[in-house]
Structure formats: C-alpha cells, structure tokens
Design brief:
Largest sheet: 7 strands, mixed
Mean pLDDT: 93
Bound molecules: nicotinamide-adenine-dinucleotide
Number of helices: 14
Strand content: 15-25%
Oligomer: single chain
Low-confidence stretches: 1-22
Distance between the termini: 18 Å
Strand order of the largest sheet: 9-8-7-6-10-11-12
CATH topology of one domain: Rossmann fold
Length: 436
C-alpha cells in the first residue's frame, strides 16, 4: 500500500498564501498561485502540498571571471533543483541581467510541472547567471560558463541534473558545460547536458523542437476550436530560438504571420510577413532592427493585434491585468515561460480565449532534450524524421490529455495542465514515500 504522507491531521488544505495579496510581477508567486489552485481542486494531501511547495535544493555561487581588460569581475550564479522525484533534474541555464533567485526558483518549478505534463522521466531545475552577455567577449563568456559549471559541478550529472540552453545561452555554451564536466570526471560524458552541437552528441531537431512543439499544439487547438490552419493569422512576440521557428513552421502550415518582434521593436504586415526573409535578416544583422517587410509597431501593440493566434515567445509577464482585456486573439500559445500573469488569467477566461499554457505549449524543447539524453546514453542516434515523429506523438497526446482533463474538471487548460502534472508528481511521491 502507498505510504500515507499526511503530515498534518486535517484533511482540509490550509494554503498559507491564499489570502495574501498576489504580487502579479513575482514569478514564483505567479506560478505558485496556479499550483495552489490545481492542488486545491485535486484535494492534494497537506503533507504532499508542503513538499511540493518547496524547492529541494537552491545553490548560489560567486563566479570570478578574469575579464579581457585584465580586471577580475565576480558574477552571481544560481542553480535550483525543484523536484527530482520522477528522475534527474532537467532545466536550462540563462545568462541575463534580469536573473533573480525568485525567477530561477519559479522556472525550476515550471520545469518540474512541464516534464510531468508531457510525462518525461525527469524532475525540474533551472540555472542562471546575472550578467549581460551582449557586453562580453566570447572568451569572457567561456570563462564565465566554465567557472559557473565548476561551482555547481557536484549537482550536475546524467543521473542527477542535466542543464540545457535558455535565454542567451546556446549550444556553444552547452559544449563548454559538457567539456568542463567531462574534464573533472576524466572521461567524456555527453549526457550531462542537452542542446549540444550535433557533432558531439546533440540530437537532430533539438534546436527547432520548442518552436515545432508550439506549432503542433497550435494546430491541435485550431482543430479543437473548429478553425482551419490555412489562413489563420498569427502574431509572434520574440524572434529568437522559439519565436522564429514557431513563426516559420506555422507559415509553412499555411498560417499568415501578421506580426513579429524582438527587443528592438515589432513589425506588422496585414498580408503576412515573409518569415524566411526575417530569419535571414536576423542572421545578417543579429536583430530585426531595420527590417522593412511591414510597418513598425510597438511590442504592446503586437500583443493586442488583430490576429487569431498570439504566440508570446520572449520573456515573462507580458500579458497582464492591464492589457489582457484588449487581446483580440482567440488562441494564446505560450511559447515563453510565464508570459501571462496570474491576474490576467481570469480576464482571458472571461473573454473565452483558449490559452495553451506554457508548461504544455513549450514542452517540445524538453521533450527533444529527453530524446537527446536517451540517444547519448544508448550511443545510438535517430534520424531527424524519427525525432520529429516522436515529438509530434508526445505533443499531441499531451494536448489531448490536458484537454480531456480540462473538460472533465470544467477548468481552463492551464489549471488542467497543472492538475495533470501535479497529480503525476504526487503519485510518485506517494509510491516512494519520504526517506527519513
Ligand atoms: P532567445 O534568447 O533565443 O530569444 C528571445 C527573443 O525575445 C529575442 O528575439 C529577443 O530579442 C526577444 N525579446 C527580448 N525582450 C523582448 C521584449 N521586451 N519584447 C519583445 N521581444 C523581446 O530565447 P528563446 O530560447 O527563444 O526563449 C524565449 C522564451 O521561451 C523564454 O521565456 C524561454 O524561457 C522560453 N523557452 C525556451 C526554450 C528553448 O528551447 N529555447 C524552451 C522552453 C521555453
């Protein structure tokens, strides 16, 4: 029989934050308010509720780096392992001036629910270093990456904690993490990171996987709502790894990408932007600044543009209680992590906007990361076609499971996704019991 994890006598949940004023901008609180709602609906046991509301491990490291000018700079880095009950911790590393421990904690919890919602045998983690990579040379970035890796090396490992790229990190950064780890272990360990270059154990299809996953679930949502894919109009915020690929693949499916944007501005073309040309432009100029195929609008205007699908794929907290009422899209596909604040959720619900929540919508990346880890461990690599087929299967199945739960419990897709993932994590906690 499963261990009873009730640590308090009452079966009524007492949620400590229930009556507290919600700070809409605090990512950890925003995520936890969704967690609380799902936990309440699941009637989660109080003991398990407490366990799942705390990160397992939070590491803060000082990262000294010799800069090119000969001066020593000290950066701060974090790695948070939120929950590892279902398997090794999985989650990206971001380099950004906006990184905070609160944000890393929220993202690590997100990864826990995300891996569970697509039923991968992983827990959740996240890492970050407070820095401005755009102001650093390649050499400085390499030294920063290697020293940060050395600082958290005791948690890393194919069976314990497997990083991946996130905002402002890429396959080159992953190669440095893998090399540093391998040097310490005196042999090559490819499975310690995912999102590596294909030449050194990366998976085909990984780079496009998050955007591809967004495209797959957007198509599923259109089908569910009885809308045709061809001619569907789309606005994409953010034109990096996720946004550019999602825009490109949706355009290939026949959608009209009316608006795209990056940190330099947004571009609108009612007849559809030539996404391939925009990608080529960014390859040459690094950003969309100066892109001519469309009139320039603000990022705020992009969010409320006249489109069927809005795909935020930049940063968190962009759809808020201030602008949610003005959103015209029928579907919001959350490519970014946490683009919608908890305060905006109910407004989107009132407007009957179908939201594909981040933990489901952008799970394509971690799914192919899982494929990469499996391939590295097996030492046998799949064709891109196989990767994409298996990704499509997992995304479609997960969308269908969340949709079924949403209809069964009469809740929105976000709450249904949290309910699905929390119940999966809780089930394993119950089976394993608490080690004492
Ligand atoms: P990226 O660094 O490749 O791209 C980010 C894009 O957003 C860039 O085009 C940047 O200019 C733009 N941007 C930044 N600030 C902006 C602003 N204020 N307004 C408009 N655009 C802005 O990052 P990415 O990998 O594409 O990640 C984007 C989001 O998706 C993040 O929330 C990330 O956590 C999430 N995500 C990424 C992956 C992945 O596999 N890369 C997986 C899951 C979730």
């Amino acid at each position: 029989m499963a261990t009873d994890l009730r640590l308090t006598p009452s079966s009524n949940l007492v949620h400590p934050d229930k009556d507290r004023f919600l700070n809409e901008e605090n990512p950890f609180e925003a995520m936890m308010s969704r967690f609380d709602r799902a936990a309440q609906l699941l009637d989660l046991e109080p003991g398990l509720y407490k366990v799942l509301r705390h990160p397992e491990k939070q590491i803060t490291v000082s990262v000294p780096v010799m800069m090119d000018n000969g001066e020593l700079e000290v950066f701060t880095g974090y790695r948070v392992l939120y929950n590892t009950v279902r398997g090794p911790a999985k989650g990206g590393i971001r380099f950004d001036l906006q990184v905070t421990l609160e944000e890393v904690k929220a993202l690590a919890a997100w990864m826990t629910w995300k891996c569970a919602v697509v039923n991968l045998p992983f827990g959740g983690a996240k890492g970050g270093v407070i820095c401005d990579p755009s102001a650093m040379s390649v050499g400085e970035l390499e030294r920063l990456t290697r020293r940060y890796t050395a600082g958290i090396i005791h948690t890393l490992g194919p069976d314990s904690d497997v990083p991946a790229p996130d905002v402002n990190t890429n396959e080159r950064v992953m190669a440095w993490v893998m090399d540093t780890y391998s040097m310490h272990h005196r042999h090559t360990v490819t499975a310690v990171v995912t999102g590596k270059p294909v030449e050194m154990g990366g998976s085909l299809g990984r780079r496009e996987a998050t955007g591809r996953g967004c495209m797959i679930v957007t198509k599923e949502a259109l089908r569910h709502l009885g809308m045709k894919v061809a001619g569907t109009t789309v606005a994409v915020q953010g034109f990096g790894n996720v946004g550019s690929v999602a825009a490109q693949l949706l355009a290939r499916e026949g959608c009209k990408i009316r608006a795209i944007s990056d940190r330099t501005g947004a571009y609108y073309n009612t007849n559809g932007i030539d996404v391939d040309a925009a990608i080529e432009f960014v390859k040459q100029h690094r950003t969309l600044e100066g892109f001519k195929d469309g009139e320039q609008i603000s990022n705020e205007e992009l969010l409320t543009a006249d489109v069927d699908v809005l795909l935020p794929a930049a940063l968190e907290n962009v759809i808020t209680s201030k602008n949610a009422a003005k959103i015209q899209a029928k579907i919001v596909c959350e490519g970014a992590n946490g683009p919608t604040t908890a305060g905006a959720d109910s407004i989107l619900d009132e407007k009957e906007i179908f939201v594909i929540p981040d933990i489901l919508a952008n799970a394509g990346g971690v799914t192919v990361s899982y494929f990469e880890w499996v391939q590295d461990r097996g030492g046998y690599f799949w064709s891109e076609e196989t990767v994409n087929e298996r990704l499509t299967d997992i995304m479609r199945r997960s969308f269908a499971e969340v949709l079924r739960s949403s209809m069964q419990h009469r809740v929105n897709m976000r709450t249904a996704a949290y309910m699905t993932s929390i119940s999966r994590v809780a089930a394993v906690h119950k089976l394993r019991g608490i080690y004492a």
